[in-house]
Design brief:
globular, 18 strands, alpha/beta, eight-stranded mixed β-sheet
Length: 426
């Protein structure tokens, strides 16, 4: 198969003909695959993203708001037992009615933890040897049993770990969960570029690409057909979390009940915890020019970061936990929303077009969409404050804070506590 002249000329116009460096060595099926990947690539967008990446430098970011205001929250840590029961019962009623599905974002690899495989397959060292996937599945089983029906569980992988993730579930018998209720779909990918603006090849027939960030979840749901499937099933809301929090309360009935009973037409809810100190490296919930959003710790002015209420509580203290509930209606709207890509300067490994050898460079550009940027597209957002030590134990680092060791300690401490009686009454 000869390369089409128009394809070559298109690549030449963008200075990307290196993508055809191994064309003559490819089989016809490999050539078709490469042509498909080239056709799917928006080179105008890649040029724009590269230009922005080159223009960006530390301290040059524009202030993302004119007016900053606190975003009110529902503080579950001060609710009475009866208030918790009422919210929990509302949420459980919705689950029994089939209104809620679960979605876990699990596109990452465990490389940073020294683990070879999808991050969800990582064993944090519990006596049960349960992986992060199994821990979440147990939580989902618990709620499903109480509701009297299994909750559909959607798992967003990357194209890199899709096959390994599915295989892991098959090898473990889907952890006893109904196989037909677990749905896997891959996240949308976007090319990475080197410092000279060149797209590169991962292999002779594949362009080097990376997942487009957790903000791509909405588009990925739609493109995979999963969003249509949810609507056909009558699901009205989606519980969303990341894979690395081993204390996440899957489909938390209280969290869901808070959204179901919220005043007004609130289409999304997010959990938060109070930051430890003014400089904690985490985004905080707020209103920016009247719209709900998350302000990164690098963007919040010092006087706002240190501001306190009369009761001594941080005025801007509710921290993003990466745990949400969205209405299906909102998800469909957000799949069409235009949100900005963020650049991440990272190590890139690719196939050098000149030598045919694998090359690793210390600095290249990967591009990501951030889920919290979509909040600015919403009219309102409900923030539900939780007790940090009971619901947040992330596994991100090989040692120290937010490591398997710290997460395991928090998990075992929580498991050792007496069950909360109000939960038994919902």
């Amino acid at each position: 198969m000869k390369v089409h002249t128009e394809i070559y000329e298109r690549l030449k116009a963008y200075g990307q003909t290196q993508l055809l460096a191994f064309w003559d060595t490819l089989s016809e099926s490999e050539q078709r695959n490469l042509l498909m990947e080239i056709a799917e690539t928006d080179f105008d967008t890649m040029q724009m993203l590269y230009r922005k990446a080159r223009e960006a430098s530390a301290g040059d970011a524009q202030r993302p708001f004119e007016k900053l205001e606190p975003l009110p929250c529902l503080d579950t840590t001060v609710l009475t037992e009866q208030e918790k029961i009422l919210l929990g019962r509302s949420g459980m009623d919705g689950i029994r009615n089939g209104e809620l599905a679960a979605l876990t974002m699990a596109g990452g690899q465990g490389t940073r933890l020294g683990h070879n495989g999808p991050k969800g397959t990582f064993d944090i060292g519990l006596p049960s040897r349960a992986s992060l996937f199994e821990i979440q599945c147990r939580g989902l089983q618990k709620v499903s049993e109480k509701a009297g029906r299994p909750i559909d569980w959607y798992i967003m992988t990357s194209t890199i770990n899709y096959a390994d993730t599915v295989c892991f579930f098959e090898e473990h018998g889907f952890f006893g969960y109904p196989k037909e209720k677990i749905h896997f779909f891959p996240q949308t990918m976007i090319p990475a570029v080197t410092e000279d603006g060149k797209l590169q090849l991962e292999s002779p027939a594949h362009i080097l690409r990376s997942p487009n960030g957790n903000g791509g979840m909405f588009v990925s749901l739609k493109q995979s057909g999963c969003l249509d499937a949810l609507e056909r099933q009558g699901v009205r809301y989606i519980f969303v979390c990341g894979i690395d929090n081993c204390l996440v309360k899957m489909c938390d009935p209280l969290f869901f009940g808070a959204l179901r009973t919220a005043n007004g037409n609130v289409q999304a809810s997010a959990k938060s915890y109070i930051k430890r100190d003014p400089g904690e490296k985490a985004g905080i919930f707020c209103r920016m020019d009247g719209k709900p959003g998350v302000l990164e710790y690098t963007e919040i002015p010092q006087e706002y970061a240190e501001m306190k209420n009369p009761d001594g509580q941080w005025t801007y203290g509710d921290t993003n936990v990466l745990n949400y509930i969205f209405s299906v209606e909102a998800v469909r709207c957000l799949a069409e929303a235009e949100i900005p890509y963020h650049v991440a300067v990272k190590k890139l490994t690719y196939l050098d077009a000149a030598t045919g050898q694998s090359v690793t460079v210390p600095q290249g550009y990967k591009f990501e969409l951030f889920l919290f940027d979509t909040f600015l597209c919403l009219d309102d957002l409900q923030v539900v404050r939780i007790e940090r030590t009971e619901e947040f134990a992330p596994v991100k680092n090989p040692s120290g804070i937010d490591s398997a060791e710290s997460a395991r300690a928090l998990y075992l401490d929580y498991e050792a506590k007496q069950p909360r009686k109000w939960e038994e009454k919902i």
